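Hallway conversation turned thread

IA: we were arguing at lunch whether anyone had actually written out PDZ domain-containing protein end to end. Turns out nobody had. So, for the record, here is the sequence (389 residues) and right after it the structure tokens. Reply here if something looks off.
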Amino acid sequence: MNESVLLELLKAVALFFLNPLWLVAIFAAIGLGYFRVKRERRSFLVRLLPGLTELKRLLSESYIHAIVLSVFISGIGLTVDIGWIVVFSAIALLLMCTFYYQITSPIYAVAIAFFGLYGMQYFGQNFAFRGWSLNDMDFFGELAVTIPIIGGLLLVAEGLLIQKRADKYSSPYLVNTKRGLRAAAFKLKRLWLLPVVFLVPGDLISGYAPYWPQFTLGATAFSFVPVPVIIGFSQVARGSFPDVLFPKMGRVIWIVGLAVAAVGIGAIWMPILGWAALLIGVVCRIVITVVIAVRERKGHYVVSPQSSGVIIAGILPESPGEKLGLMLGECIRAVNGIQVSNEKELYDAIQVNAAHCRLQVIGRDGEVRLMQQVLYRHDHHRLGLLVVR
């Protein structure tokens, strides 16, 4: 008996990890790293981060958020219909397969699944599948409360991930300006995977997995169902520094998420507020994306050539440049007492004293500071800087 229970549990876990969302997310993360490295080498002849960085960070940066969401959602008793989970996962998969990650914010899949199922209920009232029926879904009752709150919480998680993680992985590349110069823009494409556990009422799941963990409250049985939630993000920064733009963008997103969840709570007394909360979340998320994209396209390039020195477009991890505390957009005016204005002059000046490098740097605030660093023979590209040429 114990062996059969273990076998059923292993089957259930295997089916969970064979969910297409997992597999597509893994391949997509590998593809993101491959194309990022290719783009960086085309511009700078060297990549900034290893090609598997996106894959390694797919889950490692987001599992804490997934645990907190799972405990909170289950702890306060937010239940969802299994039909909504299926449709939500299918829509998330379709959106991710477009590789247009500006539309893979989870609020879009949450809202489309909710309104899509309502439309299916309206036009296909007799649809049923193995004991599950569209007529069992109450879009002006419990679902009008739980789905908007969950959508808001997922927006909060998205905003926090963007605020804390996004700027660390922005990828620089060179573009031609209208004046014929070469400036740097920063592209970020990221995927985060959150295995969130949802609380599903009913015994439909036990029909497929008899030993799947359940508990009973009153006359209702509940199952814990883990679902891979994908958060995608894509944005180009050129008129703002990535470490300024992305944290601000993330902060606005999680504030919107809190507002969506708060309006969703109001649906306890007025169900239509749940519908309004989802629409607010979708509209605000679209506005954030569009406004920032338009602003960045119209603005000037913050990392562009200057006659006063060499502009930093990227810093290799664990390089002397990183140890010095150099930042994107700063200008190196002199090296070892020699004025520099381009990449060749920069590295020629380093050779004057190859073991000890003294820099005169103009910060983003216009302040001039002096810095020095010992260079070793194994240091990649000496300072480890990607510069605007």
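OS: looked through it. The chain has two domains: 2-298, 310-387.
IA: good, adding that to the notes. DSSP finds twelve helices and twelve strands in the chain.
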